[in-house]
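Reply to dn_fold:

You asked what the input looked like. This is it:
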Amino acid sequence: MAEYWRVKPDLWAHARRNKWDEDTRTLALYLLTCPHRTTEGLFWLPKPYMWADLAWDPARLDRSFDRLVTEDFIAYDDAAEVLLIVKAMKYQRPDNENQQKAAVKALLALPQNRLWPRFLSVTREHAEPFADYLEQALPKGFGEALPQTLTPKASPIARVSPAPAPAPAPLPGAIAPSSSGDDPADAGAAEAAATREPEPAPPAAPDRLPVPEMSGDVPPAALTAGDIVNAWNEICPPVLPEVRDLTDDRRDKLRNRLVKPGRDATWWRDYFARIRASPFLCGEGPGRNGCRPFRATFDWAISGERNVAKVLEGNYDGEVIRNGIARGRTGPHAAARPGEFTAGLYQRG
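and this is what came back:
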């Protein structure tokens, strides 16, 4: 995670010209400096993270978010939860080789998304040397499975919508139209069509873009302890402590947590997002008996199944009200499972 991001004074002139309100200015500044951002400006940022970081409800976020999309300050793929800061490359680029290698690694880790053509276009416009580097560093055909253009701006909000579902296949045993009285050639064609073997369905699109095997790197076939640490460091700091050393004790604890089935990368990211979204676990409540407020750490999160169960069952969800008491959440998301969490995180009421 970067220690700082460049924000040009032009941002405030742009805000005045476009008559941004306070929330829109705050959101723009957050997107330019948030801990999830990357130098290249294309990164994974689910809306629940924004709700938690800004302490805003969904409706408040959408008002300013939609305006920034409309004005082409950002673009967003709702299905993949990937965001593009359109002019990020204009103001801060990965210039040296180490930065460029890190940028390629981050791009390869993104979920499949439809912002890739737009990203390549603005990169070529504002950072041509890096665009040339991408052509050499990325695997051949990278991104070709995705549409080459974004959905046209048919409405004021240029959101990327999922592709429409294919038309249903004919029901088995459907009766073909009768060929009696028709031309014999048509009858023969109809008979051939009826007896033809059905064509195999096209393979489903992969969940992620193809990842090349780079020299010195291990192919990401299995989740590693390092992957989990990276997920924590991306989601939880600076509010919660960053992990700087993967000790043997931490490896042993992670090995025990990985025994449970279904704990893939998505599961861990959602689990850490729950911790990050909890005011109590982030130290916003009062401490007991004059002590400092409790603040979750990586070691606490992986120490045992008891803590995991409490987080997933919603024991720490809610908001810290003015007198400092943590109020537990009630309602349909009180015990949402990971994977469902991003659909309804941090709803206030």
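The chain has a mean pLDDT of 74.
Hope that clears it up.
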